[in-house]
Amino acid sequence: MQKEHKIIIEYDGFREHFKDIEWVNKFNWQNYYTDSDVYREKVIEGYGYKFLRINRFNVGDNPILMLNERIENLIKNGTRKNDLISHIHETIEGLNSGEMRECPKCKKIKDAEDFKDPNLITGYGRFCNQCKGLKKPKEESIVYDIPICPNHGVKMILRNGRRGKFYGCPRFPYCRITKDYKSQK
Question: I need a surface site. Which of 45, 121, 163, 180 has the fewest CB within 10 A?
Fold first, then answer.
């Protein structure tokens, strides 16, 4: 005799299920669900159903395989992967890899793209754009190649000097390799 499993699968549309959508990314999406969505999920789970949320951030590269794996996790003895612990691990990995940062002003951990500021030399600010009151920068249509330091094999940094902008090795003063900024356009 097979056991019956009651699972509600919901695909979360981006605009309908998230608040402050301009700040939602693959690292923090769980924190931006609307209050009504969180409430509905808890009520449904209170009636004995298992709830599985699918959205563009958690479907992975192969959505069918990912959905199958998540349903199997729900069915196996009623156990499921702890989303909170998984989210904590993803956040720690993001901080270690530099894909995420903590804003010293609001004390929130955000995607590094939320610190992007084209008005700064390095391209990234200390505070997040939301704390500075900036809108999220639009993607530029023209992409320039950042030169690589021939001595160290790392991306060079755009700097300002007496004669204007130039690219320099990030290991300055130990490495004094430079490249002209104008020739990169």
Answer: 163
> Which structure tokens are listed for 137?
């920068």
CB 143 within 8 A of CB 166: no
Contact between 156 and 146 under an 8 Å Cβ cutoff? The reply is yes
Look up the pTM and report it: 0.40
Q: 106-130 b/e with 16+ CB inside 10 Å = b? A: eeebbbbebbbbeeeeeeebebbbb
CA 124 to chain centre: 15
pLDDT at 32 over 80: yes
What are 8-19's pLDDT values in tens digits? Answer: 888 888 778 888
Q: Is the dihedral of CA 151, 154, 155, 160 positive or negative?
A: negative
Q: Read off the pLDDT of residues 84-104 as tens digits, 9 standing for 90 and up.
A: 666 777 888 888 888 888 999
pLDDT value, residue 51:
86
